[in-house]
Recover the amino acids of this structure.
């Protein structure tokens, strides 16, 4: 009998998120029960106290988001997890984290909406909410795993990006990915690359908490570390104090956008599968990317030149990757479990160069390989 | 400089752009003075104090003082404070809120913070109105008064903040007024030193909005009203319910012991770790 590898597990996406978070150094979790994300809270409640972390179930999702920002300001990596309705409630404080540049991770296991919708069925309906859900202009990073292993890996990445760029990072995947069980081999703790926020090393009297740097990311002191500073959701000057001066507000807004733009080469992750000679390209993410891969493999066997661009990063949108794909592909297929959210972005970048087809499904079921295969045959 | 002024000076942020945002005669400055004196008496290090606020006139308090300071979203200050305290229990976390902040938009967070008994101190400035937005009625605007959003008459009953805090399980509840500044100093000091969730409700005045719309006179007139209508907890015990009508009961309304969240969670950690070794 084959001996089981010690780091080999059968687990669901939601559990892998917890493992990824712990490996990345998450030691604080605040959440509120909601289907289909509840397992993340439940497993966190078991695991965190064992590693000297803290789990708390708050009175709602607004409070959960507030608590993780507070914990992060006190210097502890923090996370919450929710689904559509709860994600809506988190939006105001999510904007606070963008404004005050507080690292934290928000997991959204997407279910059918709008409103209470179909709590137990998958959806990708929150792609635009993840980008524009909170009010005002702000940059945001959104990652989208499609396998259980990617749930682990992208949660680690989410923490690393949040720490490196001082920004909230959202990990968004549909219910299928969250509840699907797969065999995964997890890396040993030493094999996981973990990035921590840069902390100030200068004497406290020299510390200017929101001063610009070449990368646009100022060092972040923890509350209680001797650097007494002010944090506010109001537009603030480089010392963190509220300001209305256009010559202070403008550069601040520029900087929080610039820091994410500068990071795009590493933030934007995708997989190019059989795209080198593809006439047709499928662009997909989440569970849909799995169906798409199967459809592409089947079509290739029939001699159809089709490839797949799997998006692991939804925001900032992968303009460069799409531009590369449409250098060869003349037809694009964008299947999504929504009425067409990423396809709008694809069309925007495409500027009419390739023909863009969409497959949309909002009846509570996942998009099957057969559906995508039919579309590939139709357009080939 | 007088001793008191020197003490206040020690805790202000001198690189902050003064003057402050509050209207001349506002009670919020008196509460800030009281808070500084109370913190000074506790002898806690500035580095170990976190002052958290929500939105409104009271929300602007933290920016002026030299602690770790956080100005959060409307009504949510206690949730941020919860995260800070649990992430670093060494810190003394003090939350300042207004009546609209703590009782309306943040009412749910308030009762749950009281129920959980996390070691936080909540100071609520109760001036019976939304001042910063221009005088709309709040959850503590009394029945029959006027506000810009109750132009004819206010028809809702008010929340009694301290009584609500007692019922929700806060282990320390005190009520003071800005007129009785010395009492306020000691209430805030007691609340900070108390292990568990401590609440101090401060009856303040907004002569610019609430006072003007209800013809209650100047800031001085409104403070005289506080002086004339405050009765201590001890005095109140000897008074009949009809005599207490319209009075402000000041002093310590609750002081009890309940398990503190952080201590209890440490027990959870021990249990969780025992399970590893047993496995």
């Amino acid at each position: 009998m084959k001996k089981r590898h010690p780091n080999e597990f059968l687990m669901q996406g939601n559990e892998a998120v917890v493992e990824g978070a712990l490996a990345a150094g998450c030691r604080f979790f605040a959440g509120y029960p909601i289907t289909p994300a509840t397992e993340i809270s439940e497993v966190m409640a078991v695991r965190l106290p064992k590693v000297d972390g803290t789990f708390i179930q708050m009175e709602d999702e607004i409070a959960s988001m507030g608590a993780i920002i507070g914990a992060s300001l006190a210097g502890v990596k923090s996370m919450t997890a929710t689904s559509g309705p709860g994600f809506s409630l988190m939006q105001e404080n999510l904007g606070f984290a963008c404004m005050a540049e507080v690292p934290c991770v928000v997991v959204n296991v997407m279910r059918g909406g709008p409103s209470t919708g179909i709590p137990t069925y998958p959806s990708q309906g929150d792609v635009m909410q993840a980008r524009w859900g909170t009010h005002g202009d702000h940059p945001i990073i959104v990652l989208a795993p499609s396998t259980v292993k990617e749930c682990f890996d992208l949660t680690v990445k989410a923490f690393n990006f949040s720490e490196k760029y001082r920004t909230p990072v959202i990990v968004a995947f549909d219910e299928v990915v969250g509840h699907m069980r797969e065999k995964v081999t997890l890396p040993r703790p030493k094999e996981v690359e973990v990035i921590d926020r840069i902390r100030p090393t200068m004497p406290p009297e020299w510390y200017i908490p929101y001063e610009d740097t070449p990368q646009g990311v100022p060092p972040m002191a923890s509350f209680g570390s001797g650097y007494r500073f002010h944090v506010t959701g109001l537009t603030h000057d480089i010392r963190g104090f509220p300001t209305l001066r256009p010559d202070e507000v403008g550069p601040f807004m520029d900087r929080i956008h610039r820091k994410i733009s500068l990071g795009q080469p590493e933030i934007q992750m995708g997989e190019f599968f059989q795209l080198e000679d593809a006439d047709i390209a499928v662009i997909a993410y989440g569970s849909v990317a799995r169906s798409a891969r199967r459809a592409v493999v089947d079509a290739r066997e029939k001699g159809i030149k089709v490839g797949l661009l799997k998006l692991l990063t939804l925001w900032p949108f992968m303009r460069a990757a799409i531009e590369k794909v449409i250098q060869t592909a003349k037809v694009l297929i964008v299947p999504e479990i929504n009425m067409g959210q990423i396809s709008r972005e694809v069309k925007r970048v495409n500027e009419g160069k390739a023909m863009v087809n969409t497959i949309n499904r909002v009846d509570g079921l996942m998009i099957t390989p057969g559906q995508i295969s039919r579309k590939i045959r139709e357009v080939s | 400089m007088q001793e008191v002024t020197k003490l206040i000076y020690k805790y202000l942020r001198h690189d902050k752009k003064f003057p402050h945002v509050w209207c001349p005669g506002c009670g919020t400055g008196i509460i800030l003075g009281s808070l500084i004196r109370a913190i000074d008496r506790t002898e806690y290090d500035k580095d170990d104090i976190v002052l958290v606020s929500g939105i409104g006139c009271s929300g602007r308090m933290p920016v002026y003082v030299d602690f770790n300071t956080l100005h959060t979203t409307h009504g949510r200050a206690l949730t941020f404070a919860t995260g800070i305290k649990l992430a670093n229990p060494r810190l003394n976390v003090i939350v300042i809120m207004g009546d609209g902040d703590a009782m309306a938009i943040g009412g749910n967070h308030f009762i749950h913070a009281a129920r959980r008994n996390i070691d936080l101190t909540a100071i609520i400035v109760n001036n019976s109105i939304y001042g910063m937005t221009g005088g709309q009625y709040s959850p503590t605007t009394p029945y029959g008064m006027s506000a810009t959003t109750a132009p004819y008459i206010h028809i809702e009953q008010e929340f009694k903040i301290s009584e609500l805090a007692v019922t929700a399980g806060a282990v320390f509840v005190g009520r003071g007024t800005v007129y009785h500044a010395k009492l306020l100093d000691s209430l805030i000091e007691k609340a900070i030193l108390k292990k568990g969730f401590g609440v101090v409700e401060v009856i303040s005045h907004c002569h610019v909005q609430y006072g003007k719309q209800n013809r209650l006179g100047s800031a001085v007139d409104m403070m005289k009203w506080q002086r004339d209508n405050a009765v201590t907890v001890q005095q109140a015990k000897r008074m009949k319910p009809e005599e207490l009508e319209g009075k402000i009961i000041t002093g310590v309304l609750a002081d009890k012991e309940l398990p503190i969240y952080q201590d209890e969670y440490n027990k959870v950690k021990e249990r969780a770790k025992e399970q590893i070794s047993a496995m």
